[in-house]
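Bumping my old thread because nobody answered last time. Still need a sequence for this structure:
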């Protein structure tokens, strides 16, 4: 079964866009539909997250999964690299804001830093390939 469909790519790009919109203090939650939603801080959200056992470890695993799938698309669908790179770059804003939200959680911040580094490597890889195309 080929999961590299346009529908799955669209889902990944939408999730990267949602990540890019996260502001400091906000949290992410992956819905059953496979899309992230942004949760504003507050007692109600905290209570819901506690009741449903939604925690930052799950959030980081879900972000990693989205990035890993994005990387697969990036590697296998070269014609989509520019589009994926654009969404990668935008997502860095939200990832940095998540770092601020969880700044006291060293493990969470370390995981976000690793994700950011991976994204920057892919972004640079795409830039280098574009420069090689221009030279040739």
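Sorry it took so long. Here it is:
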């Amino acid at each position: 079964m080929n999961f590299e469909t346009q529908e799955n790519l669209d889902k990944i790009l939408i999730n990267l866009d949602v990540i890019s919109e996260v502001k400091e203090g906000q949290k992410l939650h992956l819905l059953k539909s496979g899309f992230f939603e942004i949760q504003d801080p507050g007692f109600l959200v905290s209570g819901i997250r506690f009741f449903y056992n939604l925690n930052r470890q799950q959030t980081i695993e879900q972000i990693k999964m989205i990035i890993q799938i994005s990387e697969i698309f990036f590697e296998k669908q070269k014609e989509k690299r520019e589009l994926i790179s654009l969404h990668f770059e935008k997502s860095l804003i939200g990832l940095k804001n998540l770092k601020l939200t969880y700044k006291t959680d060293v493990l969470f911040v370390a995981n976000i830093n690793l994700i950011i580094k991976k994204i920057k490597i892919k972004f640079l890889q795409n830039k280098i390939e574009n420069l090689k195309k221009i030279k040739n």
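The chain has one domain: 6-135. Let me know if any region looks off to you.
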